[in-house]
Amino acid sequence: MMETPLRVGLAGLGSMGRNHLRHLVARRDVRLVAVADPVVSLVDLAPEQHDGVSSFQSPEVMLDEVALDALIVAVPTTFHHAVAGKALDMGIAVLVEKPLSATLAEGEDLIARARSSGAVLQVGHIERFNPAVIELAQRLRGGALSRIFTVRTVRGGPLPPRIRDVGVAIDLATHDLDIICHLLHERPVRGYAETTRRVHTDHEDLLYGVLSFPSGAMAQIDVNWLTPEKQRSITVLGQEGMFHVDLLRQTLTFTRGDGDVTPTYLDGFTPMFAGHSVFLPVRPAEPLMLELDGFFEAVRTKATPPITGEDGLSALTLAQQLLSSAAEHRAVPMAAHTHAGSPGR
Length: 345
Hints:
With 345 residues, the protein is an alpha/beta fold. The chain folds into two domains: 6-127 and 289-308, NAD(P)-binding Rossmann-like Domain (Rossmann fold, 3-Layer(aba) Sandwich), CATH 3.40.50; 130-283 and 313-333, Dihydrodipicolinate Reductase, domain 2 (2-Layer Sandwich), CATH 3.30.360.10. The chain has helices at 15-26, 59-65, 80-89, 104-117, 131-141, 168-184, 287-301, 309-328; strands at residues 6-11, 30-36, 54-56, 70-73, 93-97, 121-124, 148-158, 190-196, 206-212, 218-224, 226-238, 241-246, 251-256, 264-266, 270-272, 276-280, 332-333.
């Protein structure tokens, strides 16, 4: 017998909010009962598909007037604290899009309010739910690489017109910082970054970062809003070879080096060495669907969500530390935040 559907509200109907809307109306285990956005209304979004869903201009008014079991927070980052905080105080489970908050103090406060009310708080680090990342993490946990030397991430694309309140460190690098710590199962101890501002009016639109970890592994982060095409990749180099993830295509390859490989030559004079590469099986799935599966399961069972508020705060802390490094033009220690949970969740 199917359980009573959870009553869910959605705050924010921007780009990510509309993706959530698409999934919420299609799910049978939840019932979307209300949405809130000061600019966009359901009248603009095919209202015949959203019969019975109340529409509000203010998330706070929505929370006052509609009984909810869970709330998806997809408003701009500067409003995360106010909207998510009110819901948590009311005992409503919250999935807040990353970053967790605009400041570390706000993030700490959201975690404290979730603990006080006992409400589930999950942060929307959606890349953790990419099937290729899930497969890679499982293989690394299983010992596919006896030692990891480096992790390199690339995340680039054109400047999104919707992003004006934060730069690439908070909007993009938090994804990669979370994934890197998740894959290595540890936090960095030192970091260095450089940033530029070429096309964004108020914030950095390119960041190069280098991280050092207790195990001796190193990581390199390349994030920007300057690349003319969308790029998303992860490369993990270790003792036995190299894993490569194309996040957009959800593919995972492993390349094993061969010390006896015979070089080929480009134009007769440039030596080329190629390892043996294989595509590893990955079952495609939409990460947002898997993220929502995990969230609603945690809401129903009162279990720890897949990505906690502490995880979100940890990624935000590291991004802020990289910004400090860039501003000070020096490497900085990256001590664990007071409330940081296990980065290897």
